[in-house]
UniProtKB/TrEMBL annotation:
Alphabetized SUPFAM superfamilies for the sequence: CBS-domain pair
Classification via SMART domains: CBS
The organism of origin for this protein: Mycobacterium intracellulare
GO CC field: membrane
Protein name in UniProt: CBS domain-containing protein
Length: 177
């Protein structure tokens, strides 16, 4: 740990403090956030600049108040469809689904499945966002080890046939009545 850069070391120490089978143990501490007064255009620029964050964690922008508590979330789709100068506050869901850091893996998976979530913010007792759990994190933790070691299924290949001239094709046979 001493050889790691400061910010990275802090992230690892934070994660080590949680049970690996809890929301806190599964979460990624890298996520995008902004204040409610941020404009849609600025929020999109923040998302575009978040090149090291897993894509599933970028589906929602987390809106934090001045005490870093979760004030809401806004989807990237809503940001894209908004006027660039519109505030995030006008677009956000003010009561987003969230989960406590101590919640177990089953609770995380069920909550995400029930609400069809790609990601869910993990909060502490004061509603401060500690990190985000993504659907990929949950799948990786719940899929049995022997399934993960298997060879991935080949991608289906769609055979592409060249266009043909219908004038050269035989007339379709009609069925007798």
């Amino acid at each position: 740990l001493e050889l790691m850069p400061g910010p990275q070391r802090t992230k690892v120490i934070t994660l080590m403090g949680f049970n690996p089978d809890s929301a806190g143990g599964l979460m990624n501490v890298d996520f995008v956030s902004c204040a409610a007064s941020t404009t849609a255009g600025t929020a999109l620029a923040l998302i575009a600049g978040a090149t090291t964050i897993q894509p599933e964690a970028l589906v929602k922008m987390h809106v934090l108040d001045e005490d870093n508590r979760l004030a809401g979330v806004v989807s990237v789709i809503d940001l894209l469809q908004a006027e660039p100068g519109q505030t995030v506050e006008a677009l956000m869901d003010c009561d987003p689904i969230r989960i406590g850091a101590e919640a177990d893996l089953t609770d995380v998976a069920l909550l995400m499945a029930d609400f069809n979530l790609y990601s869910i913010p993990v909060v502490d007792g004061q509603d401060r966002v500690l990190g985000v759990v993504t659907v990929d994190d949950v799948l990786e933790a719940t899929i049995p080890e022997d399934w993960r070691r298997r060879e991935p299924a080949p991608r289906p290949v769609r055979e592409i046939t060249p266009p043909h001239d219908d004038r050269d094709a035989p007339a379709p046979e009609s069925e007798a009545p």
